[in-house]
């Protein structure tokens, strides 16, 4: 044990001796660098203007640089070898003009630029300009960090070693029983404070560097703060020497002191302070669950960190601040109770002001900007939008799910006021009006969820109470806000959008939640409000100063009128109203030539298509009718027509392709759903489809797949989307066709196919799919030519089954299963009909000069001949049987000769 203690003492003495030597070296290094600055200034003042003199000046500066480099290496060797004079001389001999790169402080940066080879003029007197190399900000940051690490890695490793040395020394003294716990921790604390004091002294005397590149003092201070932090935790957790409250405040003071010292020693120490400060509640949990104390502490830390980050000017310090502040804010939602809801709301709103508003607008919120901005620029306000959503969204979510409705609702109203107030201060936040509108909508929905009572609707004045009165009030208030400030700042489009659509959104929300039995009472009041606001918007549109203002007010007026008409209808009325709105917007864009971005119309169309796609399988649409007709008979064709007409307004743009695709999708939905509904009285239930539903869906989806593939040829950027949709539909049709062939085949089972010849279920079962498959092959060929023969073979199989089934149905009636047998007349009719078809195919191929079609026709004729002689005449005996085979051979030879002759004519 004594040996170990002796070794520890020797080690400490060596460390102290090295530190003293390093300190001497650092002092000399600082003096040399000050001399370099003075020499640079003198040389710079003596530089003449001629080219030759410039060259001389550059050479002198190079000599100065080399001297500084010699001093650098010289000083390093002094530090490493305890000021050995012989090594200093060797260091001077080792230096050359081409081996050492200058290392000068930030205050002497122009010296580096003067002596840098790239900035010196060539001997010929011609100026050579280096081409700038473009680098991303990430690459620049990485290169900067790497350069800093290469220059200072020993410093920071030393700082870490000092911190761990203090910790391990305290731990060893505990295990060895040398000192009492209080004494050990006190000595460790003194060691850490000594490092911090040494760092402050070095910085104050400017012994090392100047400014924020003061890495060595920062490293020493980091080691000291880490030591103090660890020892405080050790005293709290291992020795129980500190209460949770005392430990909490002690750790907080250490962390915040590190952040404060970072104002002088640089950003790296600020990282340590910020992380340490935000982590204190993790290390020390008092168990009280005091949310107010937690938020007070987090707010104080965030304020301190903001001051440090603003002073140090490093963006990643702000990232740490945002992450820590919002992280504890979200943790607070797991601790809140009924009496802390106000605290949550106040903390969120103060965070919005402290983290977003004050950094942008100043402490007095007097840095105001009213300039209008484009939508593209408004969406790229980082990090303001993300911070606002991170702070407001949890409040809105909690309001939507929590039962303490009144407190959340008041907080939400205050949030809306604060957001709209900040919008007036900075036009870059105009999109926040949308956040306010969404918050208002959720507020109305949460009020409906918590206050719904059936007795409410017995009173006709319910439209002025609870969520219904609140919704109307919010809609009118937001509309008035948009109209008033839209008039004063006519070029800021967001105000006009708020004025045009706020009431539409709020009444639309109320319309969605009101029971149908109460709609008759609320409708007259809502309709009057909608028509009055529409009239005001139309009037303002006529007096508008900008094109966007007039366009927005026209669209808003149309939306309000459409909603008023929709409320007269039923659930599908809103779908029709929105589809009409798409058409009206398209017509206005064309009439006024508005350079409107396409994404709002695309978003509206996407919502409509989602609604139309899901509607057939929703319970409230089962028995829905419009004007005495089932809703899908009216809605799908009407929406298809509206989308096609709207597409005509966009000439050849991508928007036209989008709208035509929407119309095609509505047509697909109509064909898919209505055929099944008319057939079996309900929409397709894919887990229990009947034979007839499978037949219809096969034809429908195969036809639609071909239409989508046809559209893919002219869809431009949407080609892949159309091709994918087309192949999916074709694949589903193929699965149903295969299932019908194997499980529900009328040739094998007793399935009713119809009484009439030709016009029966066999037409849809095989003939129509055969024709569609032929059409499909024309789209497959450009995409995958190798798959075309396979598709043609499937088409041929469909047509073969169809013709033979038609013949059998003619003789057998509505049931054609094969176990019923075959009459001679039916047997001979197959031969006659296929003989005619084969001959016709040969003639058609000859007229069109298509050798493949001719081969197909001759193949049909050959098969018919084989069938006649082997099957139709199978009952013949003797000479007739021999003659039949002779006739078969002669017929085949004749067909072969005919084929050769036709081929020779084609060639």
State the share of residues found in helices, binned by percent: over 70%
Low-confidence stretches: 1-26, 49-135, 208-213
Instruction: Give me the number of helical elements.
Output: 31
The strand line-up of the biggest sheet is 1-2
Strand count, sense and barrel status of the largest sheet are:
2 strands, antiparallel
Note the quaternary state here: single chain
Q: What is the terminal separation in angstroms?
A: 109 Å
Structural shape: elongated
Q: What do these coordinates show?
A:
It is a single chain. The chain is mostly helical. Among the domains are: 2-95 and 107-116; 685-819; 822-907. Helix content is 76%, strand content 0%. The protein has helices spanning 2-45, 51-80, 85-94, 109-115, 137-176, 181-205, 215-237, 244-265, 267-283, 291-312, 315-332, 341-361, 375-378, 384-401, 405-425, 432-451, 466-488, 493-513, 516-543, 547-566, 571-592, 599-614, 631-647, 654-680, 691-712, 719-743, 761-783, 788-812, 824-847, 851-872, 879-906; strands at residues 625-626, 629-630. It has a two-stranded antiparallel sheet. Helix 9 runs parallel beside helix 11 (315-332). The longest helix is centred in the first third of the chain and has 44 residues, at 2-45. The chain is elongated and about 125 Å long. The N and C termini lie far apart (109 Å).
Helix and strand layout, with pairings?
Elements: H1 2-45, H2 51-80, H3 85-94, H4 109-115, H5 137-176, H6 181-205, H7 215-237, H8 244-265, H9 267-283, H10 291-312, H11 315-332, H12 341-361, H13 375-378, H14 384-401, H15 405-425, H16 432-451, H17 466-488, H18 493-513, H19 516-543, H20 547-566, H21 571-592, H22 599-614, E1 625-626, E2 629-630, H23 631-647, H24 654-680, H25 691-712, H26 719-743, H27 761-783, H28 788-812, H29 824-847, H30 851-872, H31 879-906
Antiparallel strand pairs: 1-2
Helix pairs in contact: 1-2, 2-3, 2-4, 5-6, 5-7, 6-7, 7-8, 7-9, 8-9, 8-10, 9-10, 9-11, 10-11, 10-12, 11-14, 12-14, 12-15, 14-15, 14-16, 15-16, 16-17, 16-18, 17-18, 18-19, 18-20, 19-20, 20-21, 21-22, 21-23, 22-24, 23-24, 24-25, 25-26, 25-27, 27-28, 28-29, 29-30, 30-31
């Amino acid at each position: 044990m004594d040996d170990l203690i002796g070794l520890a003492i020797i080690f400490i003495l060596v460390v102290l001796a090295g530190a003293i030597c390093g300190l001497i070296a650092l002092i000399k290094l600082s003096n040399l660098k000050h001399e370099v600055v003075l020499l640079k200034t003198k040389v710079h003042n003596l530089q003449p203007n001629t080219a030759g003199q410039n060259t001389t000046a550059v050479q002198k500066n190079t000599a100065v640089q080399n001297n500084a480099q010699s001093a650098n290496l010289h000083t390093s060797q002094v530090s490493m070898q305890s000021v050995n004079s012989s090594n200093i001389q060797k260091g001077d001999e080792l230096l050359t003009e081409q081996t050492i790169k200058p290392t000068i402080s930030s205050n002497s940066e122009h010296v580096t630029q003067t002596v840098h080879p790239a900035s010196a003029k060539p001997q010929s007197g011609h100026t050579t300009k280096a081409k700038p190399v473009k680098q991303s900000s990430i690459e620049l940051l990485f290169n900067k960090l790497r350069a800093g690490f290469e220059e200072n890695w020993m410093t920071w490793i030393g700082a870490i070693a000092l911190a761990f040395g203090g910790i391990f020394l305290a731990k060893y003294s505990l295990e060895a029983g040398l000192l009492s716990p209080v004494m050990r921790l006190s000595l460790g604390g003194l060691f850490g404070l000594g490092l911090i004091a040494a760092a402050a002294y070095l910085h104050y005397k400017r012994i090392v560097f100047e400014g924020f590149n003061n890495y060595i003092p920062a490293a020493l201070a980091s080691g000291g703060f880490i030591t103090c932090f660890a020892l405080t935790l050790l005293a709290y957790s291992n020795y129980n020497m500190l209460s949770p409250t005392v430990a909490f405040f002690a750790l907080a003071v250490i962390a915040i002191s590190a952040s404060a010292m970072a104002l002088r020693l640089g950003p790296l120490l600020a990282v340590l302070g910020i992380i340490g400060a935000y982590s204190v509640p993790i290390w020390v949990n008092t168990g009280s669950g005091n949310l107010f104390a937690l938020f007070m502490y987090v707010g104080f830390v965030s304020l301190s960190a903001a001051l440090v980050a603003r002073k140090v000017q490093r963006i990643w310090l702000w990232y740490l601040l945002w992450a820590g502040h919002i992280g504890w804010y979200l943790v607070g939602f797991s601790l809140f109770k009924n009496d802390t809801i106000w605290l949550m709301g106040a903390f969120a709103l103060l965070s919005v002001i402290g983290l977003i508003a004050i950094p942008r607008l100043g402490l007095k919120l007097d840095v105001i900007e009213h300039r209008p901005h484009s939508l593209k620029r408004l969406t790229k306000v980082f990090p303001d939008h993300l911070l606002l959503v991170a702070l407001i969204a949890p409040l809105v979510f909690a309001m939507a799910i929590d039962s303490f409705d009144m407190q959340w609702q008041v907080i939400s109203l205050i949030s809306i006021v604060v957001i709209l107030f900040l919008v007036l201060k900075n036009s870059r936040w105009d999109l926040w009006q949308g956040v306010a509108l969404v918050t208002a909508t959720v507020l109305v929905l949460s009020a409906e969820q918590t206050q719904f009572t059936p007795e409410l609707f017995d009173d006709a004045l319910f439209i002025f109470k609870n969520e219904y009165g609140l919704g109307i009030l919010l809609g009118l208030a937001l509309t008035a806000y948009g109209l008033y400030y839209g008039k004063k700042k006519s070029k800021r489009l967001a105000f006009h959008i708020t004025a045009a659509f706020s009431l539409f959104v709020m009444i639309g929300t109320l319309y969605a939640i009101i029971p149908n039995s109460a709609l008759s009472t609320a409708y007259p009041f809502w309709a009057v409000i909608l028509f009055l606001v529409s009239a005001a918007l139309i009037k303002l549109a006529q007096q508008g100063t900008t094109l966007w203002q007039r366009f927005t007010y026209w669209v808003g007026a149309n939306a309000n009128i459409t909603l008023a008409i929709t409320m007269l209808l039923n659930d599908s009325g809103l779908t029709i109203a929105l589809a009409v709105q798409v058409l009206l917007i398209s017509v206005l864009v064309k009439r006024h030539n508005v350079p409107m971005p396409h994404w709002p119309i695309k978003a509206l169309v996407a919502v409509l298509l989602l609604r139309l796609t899901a509607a057939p399988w929703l319970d409230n649409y089962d028995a829905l009718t419009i004007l005495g007709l089932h809703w899908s008979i009216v809605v799908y064709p009407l929406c298809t027509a509206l989308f096609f007409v709207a597409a005509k307004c966009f000439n050849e743009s991508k928007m036209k392709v989008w709208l035509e695709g929407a119309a095609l999708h509505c047509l697909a939905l109509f064909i898919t759903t209505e055929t099944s509904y008319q057939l079996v009285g309900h929409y397709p239930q894919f887990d229990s489809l009947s034979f007839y539903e499978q037949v219809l869906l096969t034809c429908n989806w195969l036809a639609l797949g071909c239409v989508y593939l046809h559209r893919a040829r002219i869809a431009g950027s949407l080609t892949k989307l159309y091709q994918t949709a087309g192949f999916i539909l074709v694949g589903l049709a193929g699965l149903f066709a295969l299932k019908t062939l194997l499980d529900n085949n009328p040739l094998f089972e007793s399935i009713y196919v119809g009484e009439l010849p030709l016009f029966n279920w066999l037409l849809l079962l095989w003939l129509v799919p055969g024709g569609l498959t032929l059409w499909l092959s024309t789209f497959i060929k450009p995409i995958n030519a190798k798959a075309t023969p396979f598709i043609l073979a499937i088409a041929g199989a469909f047509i073969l089954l169809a013709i033979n089934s038609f013949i059998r149905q003619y003789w057998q009636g509505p049931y054609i299963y094969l176990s019923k047998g075959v009459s001679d007349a039916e047997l001979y009719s197959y031969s006659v009909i296929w003989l005619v078809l084969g001959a016709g195919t040969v003639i058609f191929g000859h007229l069109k000069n298509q050798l493949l079609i001719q081969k197909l026709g001759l193949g049909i004729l050959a098969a018919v001949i084989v069938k006649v002689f082997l099957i139709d005449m199978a009952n013949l005996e003797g000479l007739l049987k021999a003659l039949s085979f002779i006739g078969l051979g002669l017929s085949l030879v004749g067909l072969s000769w005919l084929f050769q002759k036709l081929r020779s004519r084609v060639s």
